[in-house]
Amino acid sequence: MTFRRKLVATLVLAALLATAFFPALLSGAYGIGPGRVASIVWSKATGRPLPANVTRAQEVVVWRIRLPRVILAIVAGVALSVSGVAYQGCFRNPLVEPYILGVSSGAACGASLAIVFPAHFPGTQPTAFAFALAAVFLAYNLARNRGLISPMALVLSGIIVGALFSAAAGVMKYLAADSQLREITFWMMGGLYFADWGDVGLTLKAVLPAAILLWWYGWHLNVLSLGDEEARGLGVNPARSRLVIIVASTLAASVCVSVCGIIAWVGLMTPHAARMILGPDNRWVMPGAAALGAIYLLVCDTIARTLTMAEIPLGIVTSILGAPYLLWLLRSKGRELYAN
Amino acid sequence: MPTDGKILLSASNVRFSYGPKEALKGVSLEVAAGRLHGLLGPNGSGKTTLFKCCLGFLKPRSGTVSLAGLPVARLGPRRLAAQVAYVPQDHRPSFPYSVREMVEMGRTPHRGALPILSRRDREAVDRAIARLGLTAMAGDNYANLSGGERRLVLVARALAQEARVMFLDEPTSSLDFSNQLVVWEAIRAIAAEGLGVVICCHDPNHILWFCDEVTALKAGLALAQGPVGEVMAQGLLEDLYGRPIQTVTVGSRTFIYP
Hints:
CATH superfamily of chain A: ABC transporter involved in vitamin B12 uptake, BtuC
CATH class of chain A: Mainly Alpha
CATH architecture of chain A: Orthogonal Bundle
Helix content of chain B: 25-40%
Oligomer: heterodimer
Number of helices of chain B: 9
CATH architecture of chain B: 3-Layer(aba) Sandwich
């Protein structure tokens, strides 16, 4: 595949994301015309006074509810996808993603500890991140046998570590007082229903630098995916590069979990789809998967909030759409996935 | 390219232990530009350990290794990779990289800060691919090539690395007869251009036919070292492998057989 064709494919994906953005902003339980939505967003973004015919309710729906939610869906899709690409490359394993490696359970466990024992931990977000990081390293080191890691061992140890941290989070729920229990449940449930500009700001601050750094490390990721000794022979320090990559991708994924709750499978699906379109070079897979993840979560979330009168949880929609895709992937490409 | 005869790799009195078990008990090695140096020895004799110490993968307990006069212990991975290239044993990567993408990774130590390749990098990649006759398959999936072709791609990658010393770990294992000869011819041609080449090899016949010098290792010690014609005698091989071994010379070729 030539550079030109990859560039065109990436631009097409970016254009698709832009086209998915507008219907998502326009659709919703409360009908508002496209012209009015545009004028609200325009005057809010540029700091001008609102046109006289815009009601307070319309302003709140478009600016306070829909726009942050749409942006948050995009940011979460990007974060889960780029961290999926990064984990798959640096663990040389096409089957891992943040959820499978225990990032979500680790973050949930850290957050519940910080909520139940606020005096001993430095706040919910940092504790969630630290525990997510601990979960990934634990899974990685448990899977290692004499310096070698088989793909299946890593998936299994990720599931085991995830179960361990989920159990610990369960203990915290048991110990929690009523108000803390409400806080823990709210934190774990997440979802995009409560998205506001504060959430957007928080996730962007973590996800944007992490995504750029991971793209910058795309070449290292290619070399790392050949194995540690080969990477060293090619002039890359495998331990140091892997540390940078794991910290950045765990930061992005755990912040997303903390705001949006657990959204499984996205980080597994989009890297594979991006590789099918763009080839295995991670410098291209990274932006391609980011665009696909953003489109996917945006479409799923729009379906989740508009399909029925009541809202369907996002995780259910992503799983219903994602499971058949993964099944197809496993049946048609299983041999490639399980190679080695 | 350095002139023929200049010492590119010199290891002196290298010792290494895995825990209490001493794997190398003071081995020295010198490889000059344009020379093919074979490492021979039974399994567990310390070949791989010596290899890894020279490449900087393992840190020797004592002794020094230097590449073109630079001490390996003080070079970072990137500067080390600009001096010495490593051709690993055969394996299939987890992701379907093309032949060209595999060879491009050889440019890692020469890359600038941006994650892209310069024109000079691309030219070096083109040259390496053409040099090993891989131009027609540059776009193919590396993992789907035959074992012999994959070995040639790894050699091309090492060539694109533009290092002065090349280490090959059993480059002809599990190849058919004709592919073994193709790979050996490619390696000889590369050495003739002025690189120092070190090869781990299990077949004493191959070392006898294709290498210039040999180091025979047993239990962490160099049993013999020098030009293959002088060192590869019947007595040494019997010592090395602990069983009777015969040699026969037909025309200009010597054969080793049980």
